[in-house]
Amino acid sequence: MKWALRLLGLALLIGPILIAFGMNNWDLKAAVIPSEDEISQVTGQITGIFGDGFSQDTFTIGNPTVIGTNVILPITFKSPLSVPIRINDISVTVVDQGTTLGQLNLEEGVDVPVDGTVSFDLVGTYSGPMPSDPQIGGMNLNIEVYGVTVQVNMGMEEG
Amino acid sequence: MNSEMKSPRSVNFLGLIAGVLMIALPFLGPWWIAKVGTGAIEIALSPFDMSISVLGQQIQSDIVALFLLAEAIAMIIAGVFMVLASVAPRSWWSKRLFRFGVMKPFWAVVILIILVVAGAFVVNNILPSFLSNMVSGTGASIQLEVPYLVGTANSVIQAGSQIMITAPINLSLAMPFWVAVAVAVLGIAARINHRKYTKQTDGKV
């Protein structure tokens, strides 16, 4: 009985190793690591998230509205991503002939469906003289994908 | 035969309860769960099953899956042996069947903790430098911070000054782990309790 129990313990230890190797034509690599099919599905899923990536069509910036000291800049975001995301924050820096005028920010987060298009306003205040050639000098984007936060700081030459 | 019938029927109740719970253990679900973000990466681990999901896509290793299946079968067999040994603790085979599985839950708990802590050590101390070497020259830096068994932390991947990715990591022990700890304690208590039957048996022999 003692030996039978020891053999049972040994069989339960060695058995799965032999079966796994046998299932994979005695290929050590195939038995130990996940199949190439599974790995390519995962990498496909990851690259698929970013689709064609961000381009000039991703953001469409409308004409700003000024009411008193409040500045409202309408933005249309066309998601290139194949997963739903949440835009936590967008802030743009407005410059005029090399001088920073101020920042416009998203007031509250926006949910964007897969390949969806959403419109929202960036708001800020400005009380100086009327700028002659206002441009967007830079943009900070904070998005959430699968609970992972991605923060992108983009410098822009032209608004 | 007559003397057996006259003697009061004895049962090692601690062993009986531990045995029944050992049979149930493989069916209770994961003991330890790791989550990165909300569904970015999910790992559910027990000595009987391991599930790794990346963006909802399952990946698994044949050898690990079969090894864990064998562990589940071994735990069930050990549980059945514990039940048999506990209901007939004075039989000649009781001691052997009892010893086959009594410490299995204890070692399962200990090995799981060692594996998780070792995995966290590798991710915290070895993986960042390995990954940083892979992306050297791109201006990227990788700071991985993983709790050692339970807790929450943030891992940060910085690509130059333009992109920063922050991944919240949450590690937790699930209820089946605590059931396993209880079974391990019960098993040790049952083992001590079982000695009184085997001593009596040895004394008769």
Helix count of chain B equals: 6
| Poorly predicted runs of chain A | none
Structural class of chain A: alpha+beta
Instruction: Report strand order across the widest sheet of chain B.
Output: 4-3-2-1-7-6-5
Alpha-carbon distance between the two ends of chain B: 16 Å
The whole-angstrom Rg of chain B is: 23 Å
| CATH class category of the largest domain in chain A | Mainly Beta
Average pLDDT of chain A, rounded to a whole number, is 84
Model description:
The complex is a heterodimer of chains A (159) and B (205). Chain A has 159 residues and is an alpha+beta fold. Chain A has helices at residues 2-23, 28-32, 36-50, and strands at residues 59-61, 65-67, 70-78, 85-96, 99-106, 110-112, 117-125, 134-145, 148-155. In chain A, strands 1, 2, 3, 4, 5, 6, 7, 8 and 9 form a 9-stranded antiparallel β-sheet that branches. In chain A, strand 8 and strand 9 form a beta hairpin. The longest helix of chain A is centred in the first third of the chain and has 22 residues, at 2-23. The N and C termini of chain A lie far apart (83 Å). Chain B has a single domain, classed as Butyryl-CoA Dehydrogenase, subunit A, domain 3 (Up-down Bundle). Helices cover 55% and strands 21% of the residues of chain B. Chain B has 6 helices and 7 strands, in the order ααββββαααβββα. Chain B has helices at 2-6, 13-24, 62-87, 94-101, 104-134, 175-204, and strands at residues 32-36, 41-46, 49-54, 57-59, 140-143, 151-159, 163-173. Chain A binds chain B through residues 1-2, 5, 8-9, 12-13, 15-17, 19-21, 23-24, 30-34, 38-39, 41-42, 45-46, 49, 83, 145-154, and chain B through 36-40, 54-67, 69-71, 73-74, 77, 93, 96-97, 100, 161-168.
